[in-house]
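Researcher: Excuse me, tokens okay?
***
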Amino acid sequence: MGTVCNQPPTLNITVKDVSLIFPPQQQSLRNSIFLSNIDRVLNFPVETVHFFPSHKDFPPHLVAEILKTTLSELLVPYDFLAGRLRSNPETGRLEIDCNSAGIGFAVASSDYALDDIGDLVYPNPAFGQLVCKTVDSLQQDNQPLCIVQVTSFKCGGFAMGIVTSHVTFDGLSFKIFLDNLAALAAGKPLALTPCNDRRLLAARSPPCVSFPHLELAKFHDSTPPVIDPTSEALDFKVFRLTSEDIANLKDKAKASGGAHSDARITGFNVVTALVWYCKALSWDKPDPERVSTLLYAVNIRPRLVPPLPISYAGNAVLTAYGRAKCKEIEEAPFAGLVELVTEGAKRMTDEYARSAIDWGEIYQGFPDGEFLVSSWWKLGFEEVDYPWGRPRYSCPVVFQRKDIILLFPDIEDKNGVNVLVSLPAKEMSKFENLFRNYLP
């Protein structure tokens, strides 16, 4: 089920120009943007690449010019994006200084044609060359919160690589940002006006922690596992699940339901249950009594009272968890595993979410578990309709982390999913055998 793919180790990128894009008016609507406790934990870059085939009416150089103009316009409703991270001099709290200092924009070219770089679904470290990570002319403390790179291929196709600080967007708000970018590029109004009031997710005063929050760990001298990269040598593989595989997993969960009537048998839940089973039982030194903790993100916008606006532009996701001993994971019927996954999202009520945010106000900790399932599967980046068409494929620039398993969409099978796993060789072998043998 794991796949491998031959791809060029380098894309022979030549960067032709790096510049800054500013909003049309240099004065922002506000002096600074408050960052919630969810935002503050996510102070790291997120890189995505969006591949487009050639279009006779939109050659890459024209797309670059359209994007430069459009991004400038977009920095009015997204004024914080042109700002810089800073520590508030009075409170010491991290915030965004809305100083209109601009975002980065790079133009580059590759010696390859788009069809030469192999299977776009299969993670290629060389895709990192399609993203401009810093503007070299600026000091480290003055780096943009967003940099866009347009890379042309010999065939006339191109890639749009985007890096943003995670404090600016979660996956859902970034999708709305892309929809708005596409709308303005086509001369249309915004698809959805962003809601920039991040105080909607401010901690209560005084903070009130009403749950134990086993998914969180206090920050001491070192970061917990989900934030801490490993120094181990890792293999990585992509496990492709077709829509038929996922339908079979759902049937398997329904057939083993019995007492587990609370299990929500969705595509995400059955795939995550399978991944948890394989990950928990693939440890090099098996221990039936070891407790395995699965983490995954839950969108809290519709779960709060009152609900957050769909257009909320910051991070409105919290970490849900499933927790069980390895022997319980091994012996449970599949519906039981799905129910354990389901419980994480069911736990995420308004009060639980507010309690987690208040916990961050007191402890300033991080998610803590054996591993995190990071899902890009249903975000819909590939459905954004630009004037030059929809992307052939959109994906994160992946990284090898033992403690993060990525779910991302397939090109051909819209209801299928690709599971990226990075593990030491012995554990990978066990994971692969467990994965293959568990499928119906």
